[in-house]
Specification:
This protein has helices at residues 2-16, 21-34, 37-46, 52-68, 72-96, 124-143, 147-170, 176-200; strands at 105-109, 112-118. The chain is mostly helical and 205 residues long. The chain has a two-stranded antiparallel ribbon with strand order 1-2.
Length: 205
């Protein structure tokens, strides 16, 4: 958790000092040049998986299932991870106000625009997907049963995280350092929520 926070602080400092411009441009150029055209089109669809609408719907379904099975400790953690993560991402975007590599957009949800600029640092799509899929990985490792199932599901979720993160670069919405910052602060926030939840509500195994 502290390593992730340290990475976020370093990336943030270097980005604010404009020391990552060359790195970002070269990595974006390399990714776009080495990615086939059909893969780029596929990434346009993959990036939707990290949208606010999809994550909200998935979170609601998972939260409802946890409440139905009376796993209140996990339900509490999910709320902390998701709502706190959204708030944290919004605050960081407003604090740093880094412009996107492509056209600036506004925050939208289910077709409604908040008329608030959606800045680039850190990536909201990446944070939302890392937080939710990390939560699902936790459930998988603790309750999936067979080891083979745990490994398969965990790898699938990690692949989805990675694809969504890469897709944000390919659709020209984020710099690579936006993605790195989002992943690192998400890991920190996830484990902070896990530790706090286990203190408040010891989990049943």
């Amino acid at each position: 958790m502290m390593v992730s926070l340290g990475i976020f602080i370093i990336v943030t400092f270097l980005s604010l000092q404009h020391h990552t411009v060359t790195f970002d441009r070269r990595l974006i150029s390399w990714i776009t040049e080495t990615t086939p055209g059909y893969a780029s089109q596929l990434m346009s669809a993959v990036t939707i998986l990290g949208s606010g609408e999809v994550i909200v719907i998935l979170t609601f379904i998972i939260f409802s299932a946890l409440m139905l099975y009376r796993r209140f400790e996990y339900a509490l953690m999910l709320l902390m991870v998701s709502i706190g993560g959204i708030a944290l991402n919004f605050l960081l975007k407003i604090l740093f106000q880094r412009e996107r590599p492509g056209d600036m957009t506004v925050i939208e949800m289910f077709g409604f625009s908040l008329e608030v600029a959606s800045f680039s640092f850190p990536s909201g799509h990446t944070m939302r997907s890392v937080l939710l899929f990390s939560f699902l990985i936790l459930l998988t490792l603790r309750h999936a049963g067979a080891k083979v199932m745990k490994v398969v599901l965990t790898l699938m979720l990690l692949c989805l995280m990675s694809l969504i993160a890469i897709s944000r670069i390919l659709v020209d919405m984020h710099f690579p350092t936006d993605i790195l910052a989002a992943v690192s602060i998400s890991i920190f926030w996830f484990f902070a929520c896990l530790g706090l939840t286990e203190r408040l509500m010891p989990q049943k195994r």
